[in-house]
UniProtKB/TrEMBL annotation:
Residues 2-59 form the HTH lysR-type domain. Belongs to the LysR transcriptional regulatory family. InterPro entries: LysR_HTH_N (IPR000847), LysR_subst-bd (IPR005119), WH-like_DNA-bd_sf (IPR036388), WH_DNA-bd_sf (IPR036390). One of its GO terms (molecular function) is DNA binding. Keywords: DNA-binding, Transcription, Transcription regulation. This is DNA-binding transcriptional regulator, LysR family. GO terms for cellular component: protein-DNA complex. It holds the Pfam family HTH_1.
Length: 280
């Protein structure tokens, strides 16, 4: 059986090229590296090095062994990270979402149904959310499209309608509905962490200017004291009623302004999440 430290020493030698440099990287004495290389040859029953005066170099067999060592050590590191993430997921649920709106409604429900678990949340890109779900950095994610795959639980959650929020004296205040094109070229107050919604409005309002605010409460306060339009949604108006104060909220009519969210988790975590999924 090959001990892990021997593979670590071989990888260090492969990367550094000399015994002294490998020893320095490993923070051990050079003779220890030399003994490890000799022990590896004895275990594998092959010659891994060409021995020259005052130095050794890897032969072709040694290079192959070093590549295997690197791969095994990478797998070991991945295994440790994955096991730690899984253990953490048994007591901590991090919900990732492509937009903040659905988190506003989901987190209180999750807190009520998953007693004893620590909850956290984050807004991220779809690519990072899917990667994080596989790596167990996220226990559940919220996307704007279903994911039909046997490895995943996928449950339709709810929809969100994007709205324009303006003061009562704004020219658009009398509109029942509005299009993105109607507002192109104007200045907007916008929350900095709206996820995919930022891509939508920047694409559909290409000549607009967006003054981003890091704090959601600051968006509401600034909007109430400003003439500038901002964005809201049926979710934010329901969860933050103060966003209605002194503002008229007009739904966009463009198809891109309404999305349906899906809750997605790994099938193997279904039992853990069952109390929440059953209540939704």
């Amino acid at each position: 059986m090959i001990e892990i430290y021997l593979l670590e020493h071989l990888r260090a030698f492969y990367e550094c090229g000399t015994l002294s440099a490998a020893a320095e990287q490993l923070h051990i004495a050079q003779p220890s590296v030399s003994r490890s290389m000799q022990k590896l040859e004895d275990i594998l029953e092959v010659t891994l090095f060409e021995r020259q005066k005052n130095r050794i170099i890897l032969n072709e067999t040694g290079k192959l062994a070093a590549e295997y060592a690197k791969r095994i050590l990478e797998d070991e590191e991945e295994m440790k990270a994955h096991i730690k993430a899984y253990d953490r997921s048994l007591n901590t649920l991090t919900i990732g979402s492509s937009a903040p709106g659905p988190l506003m409604e989901l987190l209180p429900t999750a807190t009520a149904n998953l007693s004893g678990m620590t909850l956290s949340s984050a807004v991220d890109t779809e690519e990072n959310l899917l990667k994080g779900l596989w790596n167990l950095d996220y226990g559940m994610i919220i996307l704007t499209k279903p994911l039909p795959d046997e490895d995943f639980i996928c449950k339709e959650y709810r929809s969100e309608q994007l709205m324009l929020s303006v003061p009562p004296f704004h020219p658009a205040a009398s509109y029942k509905k509005i299009t993105f094109a109607d507002m192109d070229g104007q200045n907007f107050i916008m929350y900095a962490h709206v996820g995919f919604w930022e891509d939508v409005v920047r694409e559909k309002i290409p000549h607009g200017k967006f003054f981003k605010q890091e704090d959601m409460d600051a968006v509401g306060e600034l909007a109430n004291s400003s003439d500038l339009p901002s964005f809201s949604s049926d979710i934010t108006l329901r969860m933050i009623p103060s966003r209605r104060n002194n503002r008229i909220n007009i739904p966009f009519s463009d198809p891109e302004s309404r999305v349906t969210y899906y809750l997605i988790a790994l099938t193997k975590t279904e039992k853990l999440l069952q109390p929440l999924l059953k209540d939704l």
